[in-house]
Amino acid sequence: MTTLSDTTGSAVVKALAAARRSAGAVTSGLALTLVAVVSEEHVEEAEQAAAVAAAMHPCRLLVVVRRRLESESRLDAEVQVGGRLGPGEAVVLRMFGRLSLHAESVVLPLLAPDAPVITWWHGKPPYRIAHDPLGVLAARRVTDCARADDPIAALANRAEDYAPGDTDLTWTRITGWRGLLASAFDSASGRVRQGGVAAEPRSASAALLAGWLGHRLDAPIELKNSSGPGLTEVRITLDGESYVWLEREDGHNATVHRDGMPDRSLPLPRRELGELLAEELHRLDADQTYGDALGAAMGKPALNRREPGRIHKWLDPEDSQAAKEPALFASEPLSQHSGGRTRASS
Amino acid sequence: MSRRGAVAGTGHNPLRDPADRRLPRVPEPCALVVFGVTGDLARKKLLPAVYDLANRGLLPPGFVLLGFARRDWGDGDFADLAKKSAQEHARTPWREEVWRRLGDSARFVSGSFDDDAAFDGLAETLRSLQDSHGIAGNAAFYLSIPPAAFPVVLKQLERTHIADNEACGGWRRVVVEKPFGHDLKSSLDLNGLVDDVFTPGDVFRIDHYLGKETVQNLLALRFANTLFEPVWNSHYVDSVQITMAEEVGIGGRAAFYDSAGAARDVLQNHLLQLLALTAMEEPVAFSAEALRTEKLKVLRAIALPDDLERSAVRGQYAEGWLAGQRVKGYLQEDSVPDRSTTETYVAVRLGVETRRWAGVPFYLRTGKRLPRRVTEIAVSFKKAPHLPFARTDTEELGQNQLVIRVQPDEGVTLRFGSKVPGTYMEVRDVLMDFLYGEAFTESSPEAYERLLLDVLLGDATLFPRNEEVEASWRVVDPLEEYWSGSQPRRYRAGEWGPAAADDMLAHDGRVWRRP
Questions:
Q1: Which of A140, A251, B421, B478 is 20 to 30 A from A238 via CA?
Q2: May I ask the CATH class of domain B210-507?
Q3: What would the CATH number be for the domain defined by B31-177?
Q4: Residues of B whose CB is below 8 A from A187
Q5: Is residue A179 part of a domain?
Q6: What pLDDT shows up at residue A20?
Q7: Which residue in B1, B12, B20 has the most chain A C-beta atoms within 10 A of its own C-beta, making it the best mutation to test that interface?
Q8: CA A187 to CA B42: how far, in whole Å?
Q9: Residue range B2-13, pLDDT digits in tens
């Protein structure tokens, strides 16, 4: 491991090249760069998850920690090849002061050449991705509405801000449920009449599941609150008293009830962050199904017809106007600036 | 009343969408019936693969594992055996709750293969599972049994009508392992029998090499890229070497191995399948039917050289040192006859008589007790027609080579010339390596898992069909005939085969690649 403090982007590039050389030819098969945007207190958690994901998908991992906007600009870096951060190459970048608003100046030369970039915000999702250059340069953007104060509001905001290539981990969390429902429907028949999804209150996953079911089944899906944990129940009725009913009370095992069939019990555990992230790295193209489900859940149809790319919009969090747009870089509250101090945009 | 609402049923599932690629392909509720559950393969590969599939969430809710063997067992005893083998050999982490579900739906039917009552019991068990587990008549029969037992078992399945799709109201499939016969005639008999009892489309012949990621990646490499296909022909390719080497001896398989030998055991299936995938034309689609059509064309175009004396070598290992240990020779292995002439090594030069491959030799070799376990396909390209360098500058430059490593270290190596750093001009071979496996291995399913899942899904893309097996025997039969009565050449355990194999290539002005 190489540690560099108060350094420059070029020095980090050199340190990475040196680390690669001394580690031998471990870097063949580099397929993508994963940029993890995370606040200092969650660095360890994000690193563990990224290491799990990197074990399944060889990638270059760049962990970007933005700190204290009001302090002097400074860059600290940690370079690792094959170690704590998984089998690939990893760089942890800590950016202080105004540098954190220009994180791309450090990140750009560190991206694996011509390989896709995935940016993952481990924290509150950004309000508008177009304001974060680290999101603008990525082909895939992964947020996690479950980490917002109000997940449903955050999800609505994701729909507002959506561009093809965005996904949210609250969607990834329901893949198991969707898989079980789809297999149950392999042998179901009849017209779908209605359905219901029950989950702990304000669950973005439940909203997406209901959105997906509503969109695919073209039927009204009702959202109900339960005491959790997480999602607890999905029930769909078809013509002729026939039904598909999935239940999970303990957060581990689901029971499938079908009319005319014996109950089946199946493991449906809530997955670790690393596994969720690995699922995201598996696919590098836009997830249309997510776009449809999000649109249906939030009443915004045709989300997939939006332009896939974004253009960076400069917004200085220290500008008075920025106060209207909450949590610009939501990973860390940057808005406690000392008032009155305004700067020209860079 | 509103007419909203999607309609499910009759093959249409509104929750499935090709664009939704997160959802795994999960088979319909079904039973997997294993004959010969106590065998080596069932315990080391099959049962662990079932657990791994369950652990990855790839088995349907109503999955039932049904064992059949001549043991006085109850369901619980079978579940215990399955649990033990899964714990010992599974690749995914052990999760008790996954096992509980799998173990709860394990059933066992006791009986011998000629016992009518036992098979009636099996049929009855399958019927009752339709109600209790909702398997809707779907069942796959995995025949992990000696070839000699095939006819009896198949006759029993026919007698009890449990192989009949229509009578069962679902699908009935059968999985057969190699050897698929021991020559063309026996394989025709076997295929006739199996295809008669089951419908030909429901017969899955497992060649676990085809389940390996790299083999499928060979198709991606060739047909998804523009870079390789233009040079994939006799204008640019000098020769192809396909090697499957094993470190191990024959282990406990003496009885089977001594009657088969390397040509029947490996050349007939694995090596010829790899050759077919390497040499075939582009299939019109990545589907079972289209792939089979192209593979079959290649297999039928394979030509044995006229001069078998010089272009087919078989060997038998003698005692020697391997990996720092002294090992026995083949004739000293337990239960091998003292005067056995069975080969443990075979090397052969084949031609593929098509416009694309005319004149390009395909060298195939396989052997036991070779220095390391390795399977690879090496495509050597012709030397550049003109070199604008002084002859001394390129003395160390060999042929360009593309090597597809099937196992271990799955990946691709490209060998080409590069200038040696310095003030003089010297061109030497360098290797550019792509490691497909390393970082991916944890998540990619094992070959057996993949193939088992394909059987339950009814996807025959990675399974050779009967015509392919028959075409392969047409290649191997004349070799066996030529060799019958002759003595295999000896080679020391731990060396790369008999000297005659080296001579065979030397005669063509080539050398074997050291894998």
A1: A251
A2: alpha beta
A3: 3.40.50.720
A4: 28-29, 134, 136
A5: yes
A6: 82
A7: B20
A8: 30
A9: 567 888 876 788
